[in-house]
Design goal:
Number of helices: 7
Largest sheet: 7 strands, mixed
Order of helices and strands: EEEHEEEEHHEHEHEHEHE
Distance between the termini: 18 Å
Number of strands: 12
Shape: globular
CATH class of the largest domain: Alpha Beta
CATH architecture of the largest domain: Alpha-Beta Complex
Strand content: 15-25%
Number of domains: 2
Amino acid sequence: MAGKVMHAVQYDSYGSRAAGLKHVEVPVPTPKKDEVLLKVEATSINPIDWKIQKGMLRPLLPTKFPFIPTIDVGGGVVEVGSNVKSFKAGDKVVAMLNALNGGGLAEYAVANESLTVSRPVEVSAAEGAGLVIAGLTALQALVNAAEVKLEGTGQQKNILVTAASGGVGHYAVQLAKLVIHCTEGIPWSTFEPNLSSSGKVIDITPGVSAMWTFAVKKLTFSKKQLVLLVLIPKKENLELIVELVKEGKLKTVIDSKFPLSKAEDAWSKSSDGHATGKIVVEP
């Protein structure tokens, strides 16, 4: 699709929230040898997206301006790179875009084959787009950090999920059926008196205070632990949660949908923090 242009939404500086988003016409990206070009059918906004715009990850992200945000997408394959073997034009997929490049708030985006999975007909583009960061974070919090066996084997565990109506929280509740701490601003001291002797708080939004508590608990060999979760995206994990949605064992709760032309409204709703489930933009 060399030479063609597309509608996209980008920002060119830190700050300004939704007012900083600009609607532009930019060239359709060209996939590299290990990438697929997608027609974006849906993308979801995560809190990390507007936090990056706010400057909370500077100077790491964005790597450059202007920047097209969001990395969770559901769509269809339009073109594949020379080394891509698993997909062909016309395939329906769910993908996690490269966090350094972003690109989801656009009509087309490129994704690496290694973080692109097939999307069955039972899973809509919006459901798939809502899954990626939130679903993977919930899965890894439960399986890796809390050591929960999703198949029901192993020791039974008591699980508390805070901010359970949010993006990560609503998946964690379903996958769990320890403590998974999905909200911000609640200190360790709130949880510690209520933990069992070997209880864990798994913090998916760690700040400086949480990092200090984590270090102290490790150094003092405390049985009560604060676990800091850093998402490590894996294709097999993404395939698993897509399959769970297909089988009806996991559901993406969609708070609201917006067209790309109203991306600012979706951005504002996410940054206001009052969504129940996922906020989806459909180009």
